[in-house]
């Protein structure tokens, strides 16, 4: 110890001796604390008698075990954060993309959808394609530096793509895949005007869907006639996710063209949804475009509900956190989801989301049945929760990678942990014969009447019986949601575990979905080997699944989450600060 240090210690000891109150038998401070303790005990006792709930809320934190802050699962021995590219794995995803694209180009160039086993394409309407596959895939080519392929795709867009097509096109799908694809192609190509011109033409044809009494969009559109069409199969109702998942695209287009109409139409939908707010913060999956109200229908994070929650957060991110209304709506929704939908499985305590199904009694009363069903679609939610935790749940404005406990609010910590756990659950649903996860899983609950093989684990595929054709739930249709969450989780934690998980999924896709002659196909039962294929390669395989896998292994400086927001079809748009005064700014 140095002389200075020694002198300081002696000074401290002397100060201790000379300062402080003289010793008394009952120091004032301890009398004060006793009085305070007495008052606190008295108040709690009083409350316990007259309002036990409030009393429990006050004292429960001292009795309920609090979750230990473990920001990421153990990283299999690798502790340092390494965000550099894993080149061999990244290049393997490029090779897979080429295998998919070149087969499509050979067999079906320009058609909306591809059937890799029959080597054929097909269109959504008889009047011709709308670039469903080409446009959805082009930004992945830009990212992968597939310049020749991108040039050929551009050529097709310049010379063949037309939106003057009769038929019923789904408003949401056309927006997220085609409009979204054109807008990100515009940005990533360094503002090639072709893409913006096409985007504007398409958006102008879609706009009439918003001309309803409420402003909620109709589900379908005839692009040639520029006319909205209601969905007769669903009594004219529009699904909540579909109505509330057009906003990133129309708002970015508004920024690029300086035309406020796109912004206003998209924002009006959010205003209507805000106005019909349900007390739980949750959203039923159907709304009525006539009066703008929620219709009595299921509540879930899966189909028709999923991207409503995703876009609440992403709208807040898109405009650089400048519209607090989305933060309030998102936080409110997350409170509802975490309180009412998130459950733990019986055996391994896996975190999953259930659905609420409304039931009407003979007397007309409504009750809600909690159903332990989780769509593969829900697997986007793990990453989304983590992204939300560091955004609306940040206590300090900026958080570390991975976040420290003191950098997040209580809600932020809750959502982060739930997100991490949900990703683990989604990975457990890949514990199948193929290593691929099914379209829908059910979790075990008491008295569910399941026996046999399903009884052994926490989850099962409903209706799967040996010797019978597999149920719809057993399929894997090349969906991206789990790898989307892995990509976000890796970027927010730097934990290699997420790359390992992604690689395992990629290997299963290579082994079981790859068609030797070109392309990839869905499998009809993830629990059956050898697999049976379905003759379809969904467009989101090239636009989302392979893109997120590529970005998972790419250097994290590429398309950083601090500067980009991905639309629900994985098309990245830059984050901006709105130049116009928005309805919610
Ligand atoms: C994609 O088209 C989008 O991610 C959408 O939000 C939901 N489903 C598919 C992929 O599974």
TrEMBL record:
Q: Which organism is it from?
A: Somion occarium
What are the entry keywords? Answer: Calcium, Disulfide bond, Glycosidase, Hydrolase, Membrane, Metal-binding, Transmembrane, Transmembrane helix
What does the organism's lineage look like at the top?
Eukaryota, Fungi, Dikarya, Basidiomycota, Agaricomycotina
Q: What is its EC number?
A: 3.2.1.-
Listed Gene3D superfamilies: 1.50.10.10
Hydrolase recorded as keyword? yes
Entry's family note: Belongs to the glycosyl hydrolase 47 family.
Transmembrane stretches in the record are 35-52
Specify the protein name.
alpha-1,2-Mannosidase
Per its UniProt record, the required cofactor names are: Ca(2+)
Q: Where is this region: Disordered?
A: 1-23
């Amino acid at each position: 110890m140095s002389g200075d240090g020694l002198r300081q210690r002696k000074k401290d000891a002397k100060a201790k001796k000379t300062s402080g109150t003289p010793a008394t038998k009952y120091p004032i401070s301890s009398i004060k604390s006793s009085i305070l303790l007495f008052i606190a005990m008295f108040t709690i006792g009083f409350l316990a008698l007259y309002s036990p709930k409030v009393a429990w809320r006050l004292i429960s934190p001292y009795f309920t075990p609090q979750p230990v802050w473990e920001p990421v699962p153990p990283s299999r021995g690798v502790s340092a954060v390494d965000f550099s590219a894993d080149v061999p794995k990244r290049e393997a995803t490029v090779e897979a993309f080429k295998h998919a694209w070149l087969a499509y180009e050979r067999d079906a160039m320009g058609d909306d959808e591809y059937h890799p086993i029959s080597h054929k394409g097909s269109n959504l309407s008889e009047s011709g394609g709308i670039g469903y596959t080409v446009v959805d895939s082009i930004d992945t080519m830009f990212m992968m530096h597939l310049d020749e392929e991108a040039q050929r795709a551009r050529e097709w867009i310049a010379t063949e793509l037309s939106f003057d097509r009769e038929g019923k096109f789904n408003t949401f799908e056309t927006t997220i895949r085609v409009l979204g694809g054109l807008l990100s192609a515009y940005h990533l190509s360094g503002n090639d005007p072709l893409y913006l011109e096409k985007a504007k033409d398409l958006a102008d044809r879609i706009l009439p869907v918003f001309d309803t009494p409420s402003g909620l969009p109709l589900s379908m559109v005839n692009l040639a006639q520029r006319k909205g069409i209601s969905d007769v199969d669903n009594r004219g109702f529009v699904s909540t996710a579909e109505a509330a998942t057009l906003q990133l695209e129309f708002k970015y287009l508004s920024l690029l063209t300086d035309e406020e109409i796109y912004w206003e139409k998209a924002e009006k939908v959010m205003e209507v949804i805000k106005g019909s707010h349900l007390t739980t913060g949750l959203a039923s999956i159907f709304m009525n475009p006539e009066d703008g109200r929620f219709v009595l229908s299921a509540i879930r994070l899966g189909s028709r509900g999923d991207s409503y929650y995703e876009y609440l957060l992403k709208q807040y991110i898109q405009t650089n956190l400048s519209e607090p209304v989305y933060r309030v709506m998102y936080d409110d929704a997350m409170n509802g989801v975490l309180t009412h939908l998130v459950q733990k499985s019986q055996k391994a305590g896996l975190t999953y989301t259930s659905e609420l199904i409304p039931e009407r009694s003979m007397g007309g009363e409504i009750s809600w049945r909690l159903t332990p069903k989780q769509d593969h679609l829900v697997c986007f939610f793990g990453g989304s929760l983590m992204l939300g935790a560091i955004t609306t749940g940040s206590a300090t404005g900026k958080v570390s990678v991975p976040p420290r406990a003191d950098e997040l609010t209580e809600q932020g910590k809750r959502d982060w942990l739930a997100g991490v756990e949900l990703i683990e659950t989604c990975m457990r649903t890949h514990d199948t014969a193929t290593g691929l996860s099914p379209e829908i899983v059910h979790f075990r609950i008491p008295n569910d009447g399941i026996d046999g093989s399903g009884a052994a684990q926490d989850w099962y595929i409903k209706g799967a019986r040996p010797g019978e054709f597999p149920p719809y739930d057993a399929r894997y249709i090349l969906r991206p949601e789990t790898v989307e969450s892995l990509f976000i989780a890796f970027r927010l934690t730097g934990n290699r575990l997420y790359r390992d998980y992604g690689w395992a999924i990629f290997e299963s896709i290579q082994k079981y979905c790859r068609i030797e002659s070109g392309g990839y196909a869905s499998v009809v039962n993830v629990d059956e080997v050898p697999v049976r294929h379905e003759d379809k390669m969904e467009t989101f395989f090239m636009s989302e699944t392979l893109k997120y896998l590529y970005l998972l292994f790419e250097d994290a400086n590429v398309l950083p989450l601090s500067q980009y927001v991905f639309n629900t079809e994985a098309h990245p748009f830059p984050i901006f600060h709105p130049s116009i005064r928005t309805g919610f700014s």
